[in-house]
Amino acid sequence: QGKNKRLTKSKKGGKKKAVDPFLKKEWYKLIAPSMFSQKECGKTIITRTQGQKIASDGLKGRVVELSLADLNNNEAMSYRKVKLCVEDVQGYNCLLNFHGMDMTRDKLCSLIKKKQSIIEANVDARTTDGYIVRLFCIAFTKKQDDQLKETCYAKSAKVRSIRAKMIATMAALAGKGDLRTLVKALVAGTTGEEIEREASSIFPIKDCYIRKVKVIKKPKFDVTALMEWHTDDGQDTGANVAPAVAEELVAGSGGRL
């Protein structure tokens, strides 16, 4: 008699009707920060709010990984992957914020070859608005223009001094502004070339990239700070400055001549 009591009773928990779980779901739009040209970058799905289980709470903290080629309609950047995190839900829009950056595997593997040294460095830095980010950098030694020797290995002392240069440049980049200016610089991708120039006096290097960025610590959630990422005024000033500067320079140099 012990365990099998239920057998005699009538079917109380009878077979449930198989219900399609997707009927209970809703689609939410993902809205990328305004510095990227594609604002609506995708959709995500979640079960509707029911009782204590609120849909927007389930969405917050979701991380989506997107190619920078899609975000900025720039196929040249297809090796950059950007991680964005859902920070706030307004209506059926999920507002995303920067969460990290990575490089595709094939790009990284295409850089690594024999007969050269690989130099890597990483640094934790704090931006002015309280984010702590960890930046990883990678670079490779290259042959001199007139070099006959097959290999171009750097001595460990030179590797160390290049690494120190990398760390200094990355720490300065992250520490000098807020996270938005850092992300803009990372998306532009000019930091690698800057480090190449800095280090060229020590040893010639090539293919220098910030290969990965992690957001280690975020400040307490602040809606106004998030809305700054999503208002277009930042985008507009960014777009208009370049041509204006070019015109001034041309006019100025013309005046001097």
Write the layout of secondary structure elements.
Blueprint: E1 25-31, E2 40-47, H1 55-59, E3 63-67, H2 68-72, E4 80-90, E5 93-103, H3 105-111, E6 118-126, E7 132-141, H4 156-175, H5 179-188, H6 191-199, E8 205-217, H7 223-230, H8 233-256
Parallel strand pairs: 1-5
Antiparallel strand pairs: 1-2, 3-4, 4-5, 5-8, 6-7, 7-8
Helix pairs in contact: 4-6
Structure description:
With 257 residues, the protein is of the alpha+beta class. Helix content is 34%, strand content 29%. The chain has 8 helices and 8 strands; from the N terminus they run ββαβαββαββαααβαα. It has helices at residues 55-59, 68-72, 105-111, 156-175, 179-188, 191-199, 223-230, 233-256; strands at 25-31, 40-47, 63-67, 80-90, 93-103, 118-126, 132-141, 205-217. Strands 1, 2, 3, 4, 5, 6, 7 and 8 form an 8-stranded mixed beta sheet that branches. A hairpin with an 8-residue loop joins β1 (25-31) and β2. α4 (156-175) packs across α6 (191-199). It is elongated. The model is unreliable at 234-252 (pLDDT under 50).
Average pLDDT, all residues: 81
- N-end to C-end Cα span: 107 Å
Query: Uncertain segments of ≥5 residues (pLDDT<50)?
Result: 234-252
Provide the succession of SSEs: EEHEHEEHEEHHHEHH
In percent, how helical is the residue content?
25-40%
Tell me how many strands there are.
8
Q: What structural class do helix, strand and pairing data support?
A: alpha+beta
Largest sheet: 8 strands, mixed
Gyration radius over CA: 26 Å
Strand content: 25-35%
Number of helices: 8
- Which geometry do the CA atoms define? elongated
